[in-house]
Amino acid sequence: MLHYMKEKQNIGALFDRIAGKYDFLNHLLSFNIDKRWRRKAVSTLMSNLSKGQSDVFSSVKALDVAIGTADLAVELARRLGKSGTAFSITGIDLSSEMMHIGEEKVRRKHLQESISFMKASALEMPFDADIFDIVTCSYGVRNFSDLNKGLMEMQRVLKRGGQLVILEFSYPKNRLIAGVYDLYFTHILPSVGHLFSKDRTAYTYLNRSVKNFVWGEAMCEKLTSAGFSDVKYIPLTFGISTIYTATKA
User: Fold this and answer.
1) CATH code at 171?
2) Is the pLDDT confidence value at 3 over 80?
3) What pTM did the predictor assign?
4) What is the rounded CA–CA span in Å between residue 31 and residue 236?
């Protein structure tokens, strides 16, 4: 456990090492389902924004925590742009290499005027309170060395009525599916990850980070304790991944 916590404290360096193969392995190891999960997360967010909050759509200021290679930010930009909403998205991460790849992706899609990157910790965000309409995080919260502090920071920077959406790995409740999933995560995923990235440590960490994380109702309790209201969760693909939504009251 001590080694596992040390890995979390050096999470930026860990992701720097695998950044070049991260997108490829993400899509390969999830059989491309991860793309659908992100679209669902953004679709859920857009639906929540539209419920009695038409004023939000005149202009949206969003924060993507642990932006990485910017897949979620790009999808959010696509949907906001399609809605005709003026928007800006700021992404923070501890991995410079992941963000470099994200910046290239954003430039290719001509979104560099709308999506910006900043190296910063989710536990000590360099932002004033109450400034973002939206905070998102895709597969990043389980890497926080202090989950409660990270969630409280997200709550702090959100405006009143602002929307939080978190997409994160979880565990299926069905024992048979959970057994197969565990076998895949414990043996197959680290081996394939090592084959392509030449870094077995990073992909054994992924396995441990999911196994040791909270999900479902337990994660909702964490969000409520951090000061969020209207907390809900949506399991995806037998519970392999979960969307969490919440509001700053």
Assistant:
1) 3.40.50.150
2) no
3) 0.93
4) 14
